[in-house]
Amino acid sequence: MYEHNILKIVLIVLAFALYIVTVAFNAIAGAGLQRNIFLQSVGNISNKFNTDFTPAGWTFTLIWNVIFAWQFLWFGYILSLICRRSELGWFYLKPDLFPVSFFLVWMLNNVLNIGWLFLWDREYLIPALVFLGAIAFTNYIVLFISYRAVFLNGEWLQKQHKVDLWLIRIFVSGISSLFFGF
């Protein structure tokens, strides 16, 4: 009989909750709302420290909306795995396509994102830059963990669950690569 791993389910739910908090903080900071939390909008600070390679404001809005919407879709996929079984057991457990390390590093990435918002808002530019580097690095680690899990289980997925293989490639690898690239 297949048994659930309650700790991993809790970790997935915590990661989703942190995602919601991250999106909320980004929306508040981006719009310049809640002056008791953020002193100014992210865009106003970008305009203040404008460089030749700073993208237009609408680009940030468009890209971040795509990134957060795409992450919402892959969370829907990951949450669906809790309810699905394969020949090996519960799909979120076997094959281990999303190991605990994936969620822990991804959660760290979200905490760094929120931290960056506060550092950028207070115009601590060097620490904000360090946080951006850490965000990029944790994105790289998330991609590595995902690619490794797909590599280790890719043959089985190709034979048994082609749709899931492509959903992982599209949702996880696709959004992480876009986030990493931006």
TrEMBL record:
<keyword id="KW-0812">Transmembrane</keyword>
<keyword id="KW-0472">Membrane</keyword>
<feature type="transmembrane region" description="Helical">
    <location>
        <begin position="53"/>
        <end position="77"/>
    </location>
</feature>
<feature type="transmembrane region" description="Helical">
    <location>
        <begin position="97"/>
        <end position="119"/>
    </location>
</feature>
<feature type="transmembrane region" description="Helical">
    <location>
        <begin position="163"/>
        <end position="181"/>
    </location>
</feature>
<keyword id="KW-1133">Transmembrane helix</keyword>
<feature type="transmembrane region" description="Helical">
    <location>
        <begin position="125"/>
        <end position="151"/>
    </location>
</feature>
<feature type="transmembrane region" description="Helical">
    <location>
        <begin position="9"/>
        <end position="33"/>
    </location>
</feature>
<protein>
    <recommendedName>
        <fullName>Tryptophan-rich sensory protein</fullName>
    </recommendedName>
</protein>
